[in-house]
Specification:
This protein has 81 residues and is an alpha+beta fold. The chain is built from four helices and six strands, in the order βββαααβββα.
Amino acid sequence: MVISIQKAEYIDEYKINFIFNDGTQKLIDFSSFLMNAKNPMTKKYLDKQLFKKYEIEYGDIIWNDYELCFPIWNLYQGNIN
């Protein structure tokens, strides 16, 4: 089975709850990743209004046409750092 994101729900701050196509759920807090980012293109997502503007495309979460994205397997394992 190929793992994909079925649904992603913004919770608060920098937390998103993911539901994967096999029923697995993961609550991921992106705050540490964003605060420790060196790239200004990544750090700009500390703006919560920008952070909330993600989309699910082809089973993956993306921001601004793949300006920011994460490997699905890492999200599935709950490890984005």
